[in-house]
């Protein structure tokens, strides 16, 4: 696919199913993410493909964060929150690990990671996959960040779901 065609035809896939990307395609997508422009070559991106164990940890942290925000939630609503993560074919969490740098303020590190996320999105689209870039309140929760190895002051820029587009 030509680059401009990929850009012009990119769209979110709100319903995704199996299969997710092959390991080779996943690595290609991550490689594309790492080619993002980056002031100071800090490589602030923190790319985590959720394997089964981390997916469960991440889903549990997201549900617990939701329970803290809304204590009255019913068990089935919390289960639905977990399920949103667990049923996804493949999730790549695109995080920004922020570091002190007098020449590169935090916002520029976050912008670089946004560019990495977009590269990943376009690469997945080019390879024929459906993609949904999400954040939501969970992305700002310290325990959810910790589940993927990020610190409190870091950022989750995208919880990127990749799979086969269902519609
Ligand atoms: C930083 C960021 C966060 C997003 N978070 C969400 C989200 O939490 N839930 C959601 O449904 N879409 C989310 N989106 C996707 C946008 O809603 C989506 O791109 C928009 O609806 C436009 O649709 P399109 O991608 O098909 O052009 C997010 C996109 C970005 C860039």
Characterization of this structure:
By secondary structure, this protein is α+β, with helices and mostly antiparallel strands. Helices cover 46% and strands 18% of the residues. The chain contains 6 helices and 5 strands, in the order H-E-H-E-H-H-E-H-E-H-E. Helix 2 packs antiparallel against helix 5 and helix 3 (52-69) packs antiparallel against helix 4 (75-86). It is globular, with a radius of gyration of 16 Å. It starts with a helix and ends with a strand.
Compute the average pLDDT. 97
The helicity comes to 40-55%
Strand content: 15-25%
Taking all Cα atoms into account, the compactness measure Rg is 16 Å
Class from helix and strand fractions: alpha+beta
The largest sheet, given as strand count, sense and whether it forms a barrel, is:
5 strands, antiparallel
What is the element string, with H for helices and E for strands?
HEHEHHEHEHE
- The 3D shape can be described as globular
Q: What hetero molecules are bound to the protein chains?
A: flavin mononucleotide
Per DSSP E runs of 2 or more residues, the count of β-strands stands at: 5
* Contiguous uncertain segments of 5+ residues: none
- Counted by DSSP, the helix tally is 6
Distance between the termini: 21 Å
